[in-house]
Amino acid sequence: MELGPWPMNSYIVSSADRLTGVIVDPGAEAEVILAAVAGINIIGILVTHAHQDHIGALEEVKSSTGAPIYAHPAESSAIPIDIDSPLSDGDLIHIGDAKLRAIHTPGHTPGMMCFDIGDERILVGDTIFVGGPGRTWSAADFGTTMNTMQEIVFKWPDRTRFFPGHGPAGTIGVEQTKFQTFVEQVWSPELFGDITWL
After folding, report:
1. What value does the CA radius of gyration of the chain take, rounded to a whole number of Å?
2. CA distances from 106 to 98, 148, 170, 198 (A)
3. Is 145 left (phi over 0), alpha (psi -120 to 50) or beta?
4. Confidence class of residue 186 from pLDDT cuts 50, 70 and 90?
């Protein structure tokens, strides 16, 4: 669901029978999110990272569903309520007959997490977008992002579809080609901010 003034993408992942599910990044418009999950037993609220546009409706959704909050501990200082289930790389979140695998992808934030649905689809938050990585606020953060891209993201199969926190979904193989072109260029060691592969 595309929500809020920015806008940003919130996701619902449910079991095949839609009896249980999780909400990923309740960024805004809690009433819209809650209407969308009516009839589903929400067993978790997953936070990719703690920027306000991704957690703006977190408290209201938590209050209404009673579901535990899952997030990386590095995001805890920016989340206004307690994390119930701290996440580490490789952790599994079971949703009925399905499961999500948490992937730690630091760069945009220190505790940035992605969630692998297990069927060649991954929810990536602001780790990567079509055309470039998530915004960084220092050259060190951009270095971390580049390491995450080389060691994690672009080791996913080419056919993997990624679903970001803003904008349209993309395909790893398509972005891989653009990324390789970017890597072959020389860029300033001070580079950071809103970067595109082109």
Report:
1. 16
2. 25, 7, 20, 22
3. alpha
4. confident
Please name each of the domains of the chain with its CATH number. Answer: 2-184 (3.60.15.10)
Mean pLDDT value of segment 14-23? 93
* Three-class secondary structure assignment of the chain: CEECCCCEECEEEECCCCCEEEEECCCCCHHHHHHHCCCCEEEEEECCCCCHHHHCCHHHHHHHHCCCEEECHHHHHHCCCCCCEECCCCCEEEECCEEEEEEECCCCCCCCEEEECCCCEEEEECCEECCEECCCCCHHHHHHHHHHHHHCHHHCCCCCEEEECCCCCEEHHHHHHHHHHHHHCCCCCCCCCCCCCC
Q: How confident is the model at residue 187 (pLDDT cuts 50, 70, 90)?
A: confident
CA distance 187 to 17: 49
Mean per-residue pLDDT, 5-29: 95
Structure tokens at 140: 């060190």
CA distance 52 to 59: 12
Closest listed residue to residue 64, CA positions, set 40, 86, 95, 98: 40
In total, the chain counts a number of residues equal to: 198
Single out the residue of 99, 111, 105 nearest to residue 129, CA to CA: 105
Position 26: which residue type? Answer: P
Query: pTM of this prediction?
Result: 0.97
